[in-house]
Design goal:
Order of helices and strands: HEEEHHEHEHEHHHHEHEH
Number of domains: 1
CATH topology: Rossmann fold
Helix content: 40-55%
Strand content: 15-25%
Structural class: alpha/beta
CATH superfamily: Alpha/Beta hydrolase fold, catalytic domain
CATH class: Alpha Beta
Length: 287
């Protein structure tokens, strides 16, 4: 019989081996994504993106807030959506404009920050010759998806909002404060022509001017939105549970995943199956 101490040592060693193996896999996937990446330019904007798989187009928005990157998608997401869906979909992912650690860049459009990012996303689809597509977005991908549904309702046929960002009534300045401490200084260090005052104006417009609900659209818009959406809630400061549930209750063609869906980790495959079924149900028969 193995004594308890030896059993614990063996279990710890096995866990460490599994973590190391997973880290190697993620590193390899990150390298493969980077190797396949390309760049398209639209005026002063350069967007670094990659594709994988074939089928109906699926735009994937990584989490990480304003530091949303392809590498972050693989490193920090609860599951790897590219590996999960590339067998059925043409998966498209990009670094967010001016994300730290990414290769996309462009001006800070102080008067229209959310729409500037939508311009990049829709511009990428135009560059690839894609008219209609579906979107899967993590974290900041939630507000982005609502804005895409507002901007291009005839192009986005379905959206999946995983652990979506939203505005908490008790901490309206959460995103402003966090980005002024992290994203802003890193951007200024890389781009000396950008000042702290410019960053302040950009973030104020983005996160303080309409500091309610999902930032990009109103409750009335969600209430009247006819695009199918699937929402996978979370409940941490940047991903408020109450906002996700409210959006799901308002949207007339919404579905809601189980909660919690990320913990224990054994639940993640169940959420992914729901996500896959949702995408298949709303995927057009022709692109």
């Amino acid at each position: 019989m193995v004594d308890p101490i030896r059993r614990n040592i063996l279990a710890t060693g096995a866990a460490a081996t599994a973590v190391a193996a997973a880290s190697r896999v993620f590193a390899q996937q990150t390298e493969q994504t980077a190797a396949a990446a390309r760049t398209f330019e639209r005026g002063a904007v350069r967007i670094h993106f990659a594709e994988a798989g074939s089928g109906f187009p699926l735009l994937i928005v990584p989490g990480g807030g304003l530091n949303s990157t392809m590498a972050a998608l693989i490193r920090t997401s609860p599951f790897n959506p590219i590996e999960e869906f590339k067998a059925e979909y043409r998966c498209i992912v990009a670094d967010l404009r001016n994300a730290d650690g990414g290769a996309s860049s462009g001006p800070l459009e102080i008067d229209r920050p959310w729409d500037a990012y939508a311009d990049d996303q829709l511009g990428l689809m135009d560059h690839l010759g894609i008219d209609k597509f579906m979107v899967l977005g993590f974290c900041i991908g939630g507000p982005f998806i609502w804005n895409l549904l507002r901007r291009a309702p005839d192009r986005v046929v379905a959206g999946v909002l995983a652990q979506p960002s939203g505005s908490r009534p008790e901490d309206r300045d959460y995103f402003y404060n966090n980005n002024m401490k992290t994203w802003g200084p890193a951007l200024i260090a890389r781009r000396p022509e950008i000042t702290r005052e410019t960053v302040d104006k950009f973030l104020t417009r983005m996160y303080r001017t309409n500091a309610d609900f999902v930032f990009t659209v109103t409750r009335d818009f969600v209430r009247n939105c006819q695009t199918p959406v699937l929402i996978l809630p979370d409940n941490i400061p940047p991903h408020p549970y109450d906002v996700a549930i409210e959006a799901a209750m308002l949207a007339p063609k919404s579905e809601l995943s189980l909660y919690p869906w990320k913990e224990p980790k054994e639940r993640i495959p169940l959420a992914v199956r729901h996500l896959r079924s949702f995408l298949r149900a709303h995927r057009p028969t022709t692109a």
